[in-house]
Amino acid sequence: MALGIMLQAISDFQYYMDKYGDPRTNPWFLMSSPFPTLLICLSYVYLVKVLGPRFMENRKPYELKNVLILYNFLQVIFSAWLFYEIGAAGWFTGRYNFQCQPVDHSKHPQTMRMVHACWWYYFSKFTEFFDTIFFVLRKKFDHVSTLHVIHHGVMPMSVWFGVKFTPGGHSTFFGLLNTFVHIIMYSYYMLAAMGPHMRKYLWWKKYLTTLQMVQFVGIMVHAFQLLFIECDYPRAFVWWIGMHAVMFFFLFKDFYNQSYSKPKVRARSPQPETTEIKDITYKNGSLKNGFTNGHTNGTFARSRTVLPAGN
């Protein structure tokens, strides 16, 4: 009986997906149903929290220097291409209105270019899984925080709904800003992965964190303006995108305060800490205590506190 009810619920859910989903993306890879994406996300969580640590338990950490350099280089190229495509398909051409941009459901070539860009942006969220996988292979388990894993595990599912129901339109501004930040972020990670001799060129880490916070402010303003004006764009996605930006802004702000404010206070203390960490610990080429994906880099850590890694 219970099994029959469950199967019926799944059938009804799939019917809803097929009926209200965008017919242009429905036949595309992984787009007909949310369950394959959900399975991949759950497998990722199991891999980095259970299977990976168990596999590495009695093994030495892998260095992966060249792999990290190549990976981050490819992420820079991929992010640059996505940024160009999202811009050339709408935001840089005058076809898209920054105040209100409904979803174009036609098959105009320029419109389909944006729809394809949306799918590739969704796919990019899977490539970011390697940030965490490299943590595990290098036995940087303190970086694989709950926040980090939840963020990376949830993002493909979140973007899937956008590509399924609203591929294009107002919310692609999120992708435009996010891919631009990723170009800079993965460039930083690539330089950091090259080794300590690159340290002198990484003075701008603080400004990268600032840029990431500015990104989320821009996304908030751009999304929430639709709550005050008439626009033929789903309100549910306005709240979804806007609240994502709010959450990550405050997480990044907290990270910024802990990374760049508190150490200065400690430096004036009459009893200096003896556990100061003088070497940079790299995360996938980035520094230790920071976010991924969403997004932030690390800092020259003065304390052994490990901040949440995440966007």
TrEMBL record:
The chain crosses the membrane at residues 28-47, 67-84, 119-137, 149-167, 173-195, 207-225, 237-256. This is Elongation of very long chain fatty acids protein. It catalyses: a very-long-chain acyl-CoA + malonyl-CoA + H(+) = a very-long-chain 3-oxoacyl-CoA + CO2 + CoA. The gene is LOC118262137. InterPro entries: ELO_fam. It is found in: Membrane. The lineage of its organism: Eukaryota, Metazoa, Ecdysozoa, Arthropoda, Hexapoda. GO terms for molecular function: fatty acid elongase activity. Pfam families: ELO (PF01151). Its EC number is 2.3.1.199. It comes from the Eukaryota. One of its GO terms (cellular component) is endoplasmic reticulum membrane. Coiled coil: none annotated. GO terms for biological process: fatty acid elongation, monounsaturated fatty acid; fatty acid elongation, polyunsaturated fatty acid; fatty acid elongation, saturated fatty acid; sphingolipid biosynthetic process; very long-chain fatty acid biosynthetic process. Belongs to the ELO family. It is a multi-pass membrane protein. Keywords: Fatty acid biosynthesis, Fatty acid metabolism, Lipid biosynthesis, Lipid metabolism, Membrane, Transferase, Transmembrane, Transmembrane helix.
